[in-house]
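ligand=adenosine-5'-diphosphate
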Amino acid sequence: MDILEIRDLTKTFGGLTAVENVSFRVQEGSISGLIGPNGAGKTTIFNLITGIYKVTRGEIAFGGRIIHDLEPHTIANMGITRTFQNIRLFKRLSVYSNILTACHGNASYSVADSVLKSRRFRTEEKCLREDAVSLMEILGLAEWQNHIAHSLPYGLQRRLEIARALAVKPKLLLLDEPAAGMNADETQQLMHHICRIRDEFSCTVFVIEHRMDLIMGICENIVVLNFGKKLTEGPPEEIQSNPQVIEAYLGKEARIGA
Amino acid sequence: MDWFYAKGILILSGINLMAVLGLSLLTGFTGLFSFGHAGFMAIGAYAAAFIGVNLGLPLIVSLLAGGLVAGIVSLFIGRFTLKLKGDYFCIATLGFGEAIRLVLDNVQVFGGARGWPGIPIRIDLWNVVLINLAGIVFMISLVNSRHGRNMIAIREEELAAKTIGIDTFRYKMISLFTSAVYAGIAGGLVGYYTGFLQPKMFGMTKSTELTIIVIFGGIGSVSGSVLGALLLTALPELLRAFALWRLVAYGVAVIFIMISRPEGLMGGKEITFRGILRAVGFGHKHSKAREV
Ligand SMILES: Nc1ncnc2c1ncn2[C@@H]1O[C@H](COP(=O)(O)OP(=O)(O)O)[C@@H](O)[C@H]1O
Ligand SMILES: [Mg+2]
């Protein structure tokens, strides 16, 4: 079953075509990758999926429903959340508050409920707080819970962003360069976390990454973009040995990554 | 200083506090700047006075009705400007504030620029205090609920707020509406306290004063807004003996705070009962980071 289907997707900015006639599918329950050189249009595709950009042409279907004309918050509540290439945490709030804010899906109490401290307010709010605490524990953030987000080490900020996205209970989690700026150790840890997330939260993970060890290590299917167009797609072994990909991407990146 | 004078200052502080609480929600918690909040005060003031005088309704009903009228007007403004990027809203509120004042200057039914005298005086310290207590309790409950957290998320990082499923437009509208209702009630209090309304009471200066108080008290802190409103309303009054020099002193005080504490008096923290106990040496140790 495909959870996400992209059909002939095109996005132009004025005269610039950032994404051109791209089609691919993401299988439900998989960890899939999206790679390509800088400026290839990867982040733009994430922005299109999450409704932040409006598509110029083409279609995006999520679980069989066309979503590309919906508002970002509607798409999020349907089950697609993401992290950002340049981290976007609620900077001045604590780790706990960052996650608690995102845990709003299970509550429906009104403003009046919160003023009157009604029973509904108290039970729902207790649930939200328990959800937030358990997420912090699962992702190893519990000991940092009172720290202000922007004071955290970089690797933890990235992890917090993932935790916040998970608080929305997504069916599809989009990670935009989650290993950027991490050392080998942290990257290993991240790979472990991503696999665990897929299993424990039973969601699909779609990840943009430059680190080939991560992509090749955890992805089942990889889509390769170059200059806004799809170059090829396939399992890691196939991508690794594809001469086109090596020319467009791996050769250059291997040098940069070294 | 006699009690009558002190009481007057307290009532004025209370009236300002009502408007500041509302603006604090919009600016301090939601991150939207308004330079036309005096316009909402004006609408509330004239509406409350009109309803009370002509329909003979009780004070609290008139005040709430005034707040509601201001709130409804704010929804029109929000509807057209809050979908646009931040600055448009700010500019729109500035234009709105001035427009309201000009309209009232020219509508003769309410006395125009000369003002509207003879509004029955119904405000005393006790009812101002009660209304403010209700306002504070409501505000604290709101910002500590999921609704308040959604607004704070918008202030912190709007794009991220959207991607965790927050309808940012809706929450900006709720924030604006609530804050306009507060301003409207504050306006109603002005009329029923002074017995006289004049459009120029609600000009740019008033709007700016409210914003200064919110920033002075500390963005994202209800107790900061309370302290700010009390201090900054009382200060110019207490310094009145120094004539125009008081405005210089006011300016210096504000600048001093902004330099020594750029995050404002309270800097996003709240004065809590537990915090007070801890400060004087009782209570347990575990410190809580701002949990909003
Ligand atoms: N909001 C935008 N306005 C104009 N151009 C954009 C915008 N977003 C992305 N682009 C352009 O689209 C191209 C693809 O960008 P991006 O998707 O960020 O690449 P990648 O994530 O693969 O490095 C780049 O040329 C970039 O400059
Ligand atoms: Mg990118």
